[in-house]
Each structure stands twice: as C-alpha cells, then as structure tokens.
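Task: fold both queries, return tokens.
Query 1:
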Amino acid sequence: MKAIKAILLFILVLFISCEKEPDDQRFPSGDFIASGSFSGDYWPTDGWRTCAPEEVGMNPDYLIELNEEVLILKKLHVDIHSVLIVRKGYIVAEQYYNDAYKADSLHRIYSCTKSLISALLGMVIDKDDDVGLDSKMIDFFPEYEIENMSQDKADITLEDMLTMSAGLEWNELDFPYSDERNTYNAWASSEDGVKFVLDRPMVAPPGEVYSYNTGISQVLSAILQHLTGTRTDSLGAKELFDPLGIDRYKWPVDRNGVAYGGSGVWMTSRDMAKFGYLFLKEGLWDGIRLVPSEWVERSRQPHIMRKFIPDYYYGYHWWVGEDHSFSAVGFGGQWITVIPEHELVVVFTNGFAEGNELQLSTPERLVHTYIIPALE
C-alpha cells in the first residue's frame, strides 16, 4: 500500500512540477470518515445510518489513506466523483469529489442498469410458472420476421442472454465506443433496437462464448414488458425502488417505448448502495422477500469467463470476482461492489475516460488496497 502511494506521489510530482497549486482542502479526510455509534440491525428504507468505522471493526487509518490517494488521483485528472462504504448496514465513509455531485445528486450508472434488469427478471420468473431460464428468446417476439434465422438462434435462452453468451455477432468491447466498428453505435442509431439484436447473425452456439452485448439487455427489457404488460421503468419503480425507499431516479425510454435495459438509469450513490445491500441480504428487505434468494445465488455465480478482463467471470448481468465478490459495473467507472464475506457494499461513481487503464481499474484496486485491509 505504501509503495503504491509513493509511486503515485512520484507521478504527481512529474505532472505538476512546473506549476505550483495549493493543496485541495475541500475534501479533508475527516469529512470522509463517518461518525456515530452502531445501534443494531435496521433497514435503510428511510435513509442510511452512519457510524464510526471502529464500531463495525474497520481501521479508519486505511480509509483516511484511501481518501488521500483519491485526492492525489484527482490532481492527475482521474475524475472520481464519489466513494461510499457500507459495513454491516452503516455508512462508515462517504465523500463527493466533484462539485456537480452531492449525496442527493443523481448520477448516470450506465451498465449497472443491467443488474437492475436481471433482478427484475428474477422477480418476474419467480411469479410466472410459464417462463423460466430455459425459455427461448425468439418465442417472445412472434410479431417480428427475424432475419438470419438458424437452429442456434432459435435455441437462445434467457440464461444465455443473462450470461452474455447468446452467440450473436456483436463487437462491443472489441473496439472503443468512438470506433464505428463497435456494434453498439449501429444499434444505438437503429430504428428498432430490439429487432436489430434479433436480426444479428450467429457466430457461436448459444451458451459457449462470452460476448458483451448491451443490446441483449435491451431485449430483456422488452421481454419484461411483454411478460408483465408494464414498461420496465414502471415495473422497477413498483417492485424494486418503492420497497427500497428510492423515489428519485431517471429511467429513460427508447424511441419505441421500451425502457433502456443495458444503460441509462440515473441514481444517487446512496440508492446504488441500497440496491447492493438488497443483494447482500440475499434479496430480503425489511422482512419482505423482493428477489428470490435462489436468483441472487445464481446471479453471483461465475457462469462464464469474461473476455478481455482477467480474474473476472460473468454471472447474471453481474461481474463476479475470484474472491467471491460481485459487482454491478458501468461505463466510466460506476461500481456497486458486494462482498458478502465482509458484509460490505462499496459504491464508486466516476467520469473516467475510455481507454485509460489507470482510471478503469481504480475502483477495484482501491477496494483491495485499502478497504479490505481495513478489516484486518
């Protein structure tokens, strides 16, 4: 930890040696560390309680060093917006490092939206005996004349879609989003985003090859709408957000009236933490079963190895680490990380630039450099 900090300080000197600027006093370590006493179990429906890290077995010195490194990174133009740490149901540290974002500010969570879609699908499947993980994708869309049909395409199941292994031709992580070869761009500008996905040719049998596909999450949103007769944003409000006490958010809809399933939701950091806490509690909230515990368990299992990202697998629209943590992850560095072993939920919001490996890897590294060691 000390070595990493020394390296960062050295890099900082190289970057700013030609210009003297005052230390940033807006985000002192003392403001990052929460205060208060642990007063037992509760549900944060009406708001989070805070307590000092020592109250729940965390060493604040590590968290102070985390805050100090974030300030160094900001001087290196690593655009960190917020860090929030929940341990045993209490906020022990929280800071907002960008003047545009505060505790009550909405932040775009990008592909963390996918994990919301997964949760809603698990809730709907649990109540509908006519649909299951083995239900076929194309069976939900009899109104479309689907192009490039094959037996493989007919065999794509909901589980294949959830694990990003449908086998459709889709190059999203192969190229930057600014590259016209990225399939996402053609999909985003298409007249019908659902049909665009359904029409893609097959390049692998379903269930065998991981290929990140935001469009497939949009199709899942359309399937939710088909199954319930309710648009996904309204379904999410009623079945998920209202019980969690989340009343401020944005959930956009595409040109065909389908709520975005792969990206687009805006939430506060504290409400992102509520969603993570729901999964930490295995789908239970204030005595009410929201998400089936079996679905939570299946969602965080390492179903398939993620292409391009070492040491990570993919569950049901969740990233799954080899340390048994699992995370909802969005473009630009949005993370909701759940670590059941340590009763931890960690939220990061950021404005990271595409292609900068230091920025993209920062949330995960900070968790393992400071937050986990604070428990030892």
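Query 1 returned. Query 2:
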Amino acid sequence: MKSIFLKRGKEESLRRFHPWIFSGAIHHMSEEPEEGEKVMVFTSENEYIATGHFQIGSIMVRVLTFDHEEIDQHFYEQKLAIAKDVRQSIGVMGNDNNTYRLVHGEGDNLPGLVIDIYGNTAVMQAHSVGMHLERHIIAKALKNVMGEGLQNIFYKSETTLPYKAELGQENGFLLGGDTDDVAMENGLKFHVDWLKGQKTGFFVDQRDNRSLLERYAKGRKVLNMFCYTGGFSFYAMRGGAELVHSVDSSQKAIDLTNANIALNFPDDSRHEAFAEDAFRFMEKMQTPYDLIILDPPAFAKHKDALHNALKGYTRLNRKAFEKIQPGGILFTFSCSQAVNKDQFRTAVFTAAASARRNVRILHQLHQPADHPINIYHPEGEYLKGLVLYVE
C-alpha cells in the first residue's frame, strides 16, 4: 500500500477524526497512487494516522479508518452491521416501512458510499472512485449482513462518479434482477425508479417531514412544487387535504406521481398533476392554496454557485409568500450542502419581508435519523427546512 505524508501540523483535523484530507495538507507521497487506490497516511513525524481512498481533486483522501487494519470484506461487513444496528435502534425497519437509508457516507464512516433499501432491493451508489472499485466486495458484505431479506442489489453510480476518471461505469444489478419497484413508507406504497430516477430513485430523506406535513393537511388546498414522484402529495392526501396539486417540470416525474397516487388513492379526484416550470406555474396560479411545499433540487452543488443559489431561494420563497392564503402553512427546504442553515433562513426571511407578510416559524427541519451526521464531520448536515405560518 502506498504512503502519503502530511505537512507539519496538518494532522490536527485527523486527530479530531475528520474524514477528509485536502490536497494542501499533503507534503509528499511514496509514489503517485492511482485514483481510488487505498493509501496509508502518516504525519510529518512518520506516525501512522489513517487509511483511506485516494482521489484526484481538492479532497485527496477519504478516510476509511483511523486504526491500522485491513480494508477487506470483513471490514465492510463490520461497518454495515453497525449501520444496520443503528437503523434497527431508531425504528425505521418496521412492518409498515421497508424504505430507509442503510449507509449515509461519512455519517456511517463509509465516505463515498450510499445504500438505500427499498423492500428486498438495495440501491448502492458510489460517490468516489474508491467505493466504485470496491463495489463487488461491498455487495458480498451487504448480502451477508442483510441475509435472506435482501434479494437484489442495484448499482447506480453512472452520474455520481467523477467523469474525468473515465471508468466507463454502467448502472446494473450486482445481485438478483427483480424489477418489482413498489416499496412502502409508513404504510403508503410508491414506485421507485432506481433505473433512471434521481438519487437512488426516491427521496428517502424527507420521510419524517412528509409525516409532519400529513398532520397539517386536513381540509387544506395543497400545492406540492418540485413534486418529483409525489411523496408529499400522497401524504397530504392521506392527511385529508381538500385538494392536492403536484407540479414538476419533468413529465416523467408527473407520470410517476400519478402512478403513486393511483397506488394509494385509486379514482380519487382530489389530486391533479402538472408538468410545468415552477416559477411559471406560480406566476399564473389562481387556486387559493393554503399549504405550499417548496422542495427544489439543489440550487448550489458547490460554493461557487452560492450567490446565485441564495438569490434563487429568495425569489422562489417570495413568490410563495405572495401567493399563499392568509393563515397558510409553508414547508420550504434546501438540500444544497453549500448553503448553511443561517444562509437559507436569511434568504427565506428576506423573501417574507419583501412580500410584506407576517410569518412565524413553527418547525425547523433537517434530515432524518437514518441520514446521520458524523459529529466530527459537520459538513454532512445538508437538508434544511422551515415550516412557517403565514398571516
């Protein structure tokens, strides 16, 4: 295994168990590793401090362990078993819920790896070349840990790996091949598009927030913007909404939303879906909505886009404040990791002031417990949300 040596003093963040090593911290290497190769990291005093995956870019090493241990199938089985124990302890693996995140990258001490469970299918996603190269070992470890309850492992990393790595990766099954795509969340059924859908096929991270919305939906006229596959919409339906309108620019998302509504509420006339640009729809809408959900895709995927992202959040929320009925409830979110909680809140507050509406915060929302944040890696807190009462 090749070795990397740090500059003097650059080991301090690693002594605090931060799992990233930046290129500026590296003094020299024993020899240049291939991208994705496992490397050992040493301090300037030649003291072993970590082992991780080497990658090209600002973050040069993603740390797998701070102990001098072998990274093999047994290592992954141990990590996955701990991740499973966490999900069992927080109660997301219930009879009415077979949908949850099993591995959340750094939050589960497996940086660069995401695994979501949909019934008897796991969808695995690599965000680093190192995890891509280890995918077959990880799949074997995953099957051993999950047992007979796991029949399929679908690998979905075509769009999440660095394109410059030229890996020629393709999505496909590493185990099984069952295409039954219906899963269950809190007693509601939905189709999962793990073949071509966003992320792993469904936004598992909004489960708790969808449940909260259900409590507010009774008797309200609900608008679900950026609905994707309609998660918030069918919770609103179950919560007793008077009507639910789902909007997304993608016709495919609208088709999935309608299919999910039909799974749970066949022939229910309260729901209607529209394939249209969000801003255009909100500009011309006439329905007096008194519950609006704004859950857009990430406006800022990196810090260079931060300024424009904040302007986008302000513009979007201002339009919602202008249109929502007095006494209305606004659920508004940002999943942009580059936007912190204070920046997002400032954008929303600016929008409220611009629209001249009196607004109260009812809830401050975040990602659920199966998307844990490593206490040594605060960057893992990416989902931010507010539930607001608008006079």
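Both queries returned. Flag for query 2: The two ends are 62 Å apart (CA to CA).
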